[in-house]
Design a protein that fits this description.
With about 450 residues, this protein is of the alpha/beta class. The protein has 2 domains: about 230 residues, Putative sugar-binding, N-terminal domain (Rossmann fold); about 190 residues, Molybdenum Cofactor Biosythetic Enzyme, Chain A, CATH 3.40.980. The protein contains 16 helices and 18 strands.
């Protein structure tokens, strides 16, 4: 029997959510005909997405269609109910959310509304939907709507048009941590709030909201364009011991190259994820062997010591942006040590490979690596005695996913990016990709 039920108001959006759920390693069926709701064939799927095709109907018509479908799909086997909403807030969002709550019949069940799709640059800040940082009405996405919302503020939509009590939670609540957010959600539910509209700017926010909702222990439905539903499904559709093991799995990365683009990618990672970043003094690596080893050991010790508080850690060059001061210092070091630029790069890359090897030796809970740049990927494989990578897929252009072949860490998952990968989200998207793969 399906463990996840998603009701959408049109087939393309519903199927898009289904594709996200399929990435979790689950089987998904997307239906647009009510005859299939009780068809025995659908019982073989982990997730069932049903599209009511009700976007352009009246509130009352939409309510009835969602209510009837939810009644038919209601089951004790279901671990997650979700109402898929349009990223541009088209359709009868409030009426259909109420319908799903009413059909499930629990007076204390809460709609957790996360109207964000970070991968599409759609966020919710202060209750307002922003598309690439602009209000919905000023974006091209807003022009597609046959019936544009009167306001881009989702919080207003729910507080004014939702049949039950609705409140909003803003970003300041997230700064206090997951446990505090869980307690806040629990208190709101006890007060009779039936819909909580949450700000969200990133996948990290989605992860925190999902963890907080589950920690709160309340009955809920997910209301979102898809990413929040997919994140929840990944967490609730696995045995607790598997989920706990996945949440404790660690990812380690190295970024030794220096240029403004790579710097922007690292800064984006810092903004999107809770990550331990330890700076490596690259010029120290070009000094004599004693100072090079001292720098390597300093970095390794700091990472290993602080890793318990993080699931992601990176060793990163301390001079990410090439500037006027760095260039003469670098050239002076090459003259001082009588090395060519190619020799210097090889020494630095080898040092980063040694950092990876030493960190892995002391932290066996690391299940995946990220490497940036050909020289650093080759050096890492060399230090780990791996002959190369078994390619398992593409994350992004110039970024691949695979696992190490041979050596002491054969089978260790790894994402590698070319230094010329231009998207500022390259590292962040790679980490999210690894997280998905490690939890399946």
């Amino acid at each position: 029997m399906p463990q996840c039920i998603v009701i959408a108001d049109e087939i393309t959006g519903g199927s898009a959510v289904g594709a996200m759920l399929e990435k979790n390693g689950t089987s998904v069926c997307s239906l647009m005909n009510a005859r299939g709701l009780k068809d025995p064939l659908t019982s073989d799927y982990d997730c069932l997405v049903y599209s009511t095709n009700s976007r352009n109907l009246t509130d009352q018509q939409s309510y009835q269609m969602v209510f009837s479908a939810a009644r038919l799909l209601k089951s004790d086997d279901v671990k997650l109910y979700a109402k898929r909403i349009d990223p541009a807030m088209r359709g009868n969002t409030c009426a259909e959310t109420v319908a799903l709550l009413d059909a499930l019949g629990d007076s204390d069940r809460v709609a957790i509304v996360v109207p964000s799709f970070p991968a599409l640059k759609r966020t919710n800040v202060g209750g307002y939907i922003l598309v690439d940082g602009k209000p919905l009405q000023k974006s091209l996405a807003g022009l597609e709507d046959l019936f544009p919302a009167e306001t881009g503020r989702v919080a207003d939509l729910f507080t004014e048009k939702f049949q039950y009590k609705a409140e909003a939670l803003h970003l300041k609540e997230y700064l206090k941590g997951t446990e505090n957010l869980a307690n806040t959600i629990k208190k709101m539910a006890k007060k009779g709030v039936r819909a909580i509209v949450l700000d969200c700017t990133s996948q990290e926010d989605i992860n925190m909201i999902a963890d907080a909702v589950l920690l709160s222990g309340i009955k809920f439905i997910a209301v979102d364009p898809g990413p929040f539903t997919a994140t929840l499904a990944r967490k609730v559709m696995r045995p607790k011991n598997v989920a706990k093991e996945a949440s404790e799995t660690k990812i380690f990365g190295i970024v030794g190259g220096v240029n403004p683009l790579i710097s922007a990618q690292v800064e984006q990672l810092r903004l999107e994820e809770k990550v331990l970043i330890v700076m490596v003094r690259n010029l120290e690596l070009l000094e004599d062997l004693q100072r090079r080893n001292a720098e390597i050991n300093r970095v390794v010790d700091e990472i290993v010591t602080k890793y318990n508080s993080f699931t992601i850690a990176f060793a990163v060059s301390d001079n990410m942006e090439i500037n006027n001061q760095l260039v003469p210092e670098y050239q002076e070091m090459l003259l001082k040590t009588n090395r060519t630029q190619a020799e210097a790069i090889d020494i630095i890359a080898t040092a980063y490979g040694q950092i990876v090897s030493k960190v892995l030796e002391r932290r066996p809970d690391i299940k995946a690596l990220y490497t940036k740049g050909a020289e650093f990927t080759v050096a890492t494989c060399r230090e780990l005695k791996s002959i190369g990578l078994k390619i398992l897929g593409q994350v992004l252009p110039l970024t691949c996913y695979g696992e190490l072949i041979d050596g002491d860490y054969a089978g260790l998952k790894c994402v590698t990016s070319a230094s010329s990968a231009t998207d500022t989200n390259t590292i962040t998207d790679s980490i999210q990709y690894l997280k998905r793969k490690l939890t399946i």
